[in-house]
Design a protein that fits this description.
CATH class: Mainly Beta
Shape: globular
Structural class: mainly beta
Number of helices: 1
Oligomer: single chain
Largest sheet: 8 strands, mixed
Helix content: under 10%
Strand content: over 45%
Radius of gyration: 14 Å
Number of strands: 8
Number of domains: 1
């Protein structure tokens, strides 16, 4: 077991919206990704999803019973999307995020489709 350097891990992360596993904690994965542009609307019916912004700015669109809203996360801010809430992350410029999700959670949740990516291991 060795410490994980986030800056060193980022050197291996080049593709947008491709999650890489930084670590595992019990039955959850800690993932890192570079993101830019809009992702797709999706939900994770059985799992919360935590987003932590390392650099850049992340907008999270949320569809709740009261309608739609957006929140913007700056570096060092985090937000947890509750299980079952439809959401869409987006970033106007390249943004680095850390996510914590239950192991096996698919990045596109219940939506599936061409944006689905398997989690990659860091070298």
């Amino acid at each position: 077991m060795d410490p994980v350097s986030i800056p060193a891990a980022l050197a291996a992360v080049t593709e947008q919206w491709q999650p890489h596993r930084l670590a595992s904690v019990n039955d959850h994965d800690v993932k890192i990704a570079r993101v830019e542009g809009d992702f797709i609307w999706h939900a994770h019916p059985d799992s919360d999803e935590l987003f932590l912004v390392v650099s850049g700015s992340l907008t999270i669109g949320l569809r709740e019973s009261g309608g739609e809203r957006e929140l913007v996360l700056a570096p060092n801010e985090l937000f947890t999307v509750p299980a079952g809430i439809e959401h869409r992350p987006s970033a106007e410029t390249e943004t680095v995020i850390v996510m914590v999700e239950k192991r096996g959670t698919v990045n596109t949740g219940d939506a599936g489709g061409e944006r689905t990516r398997d989690v990659r291991e860091l070298d």
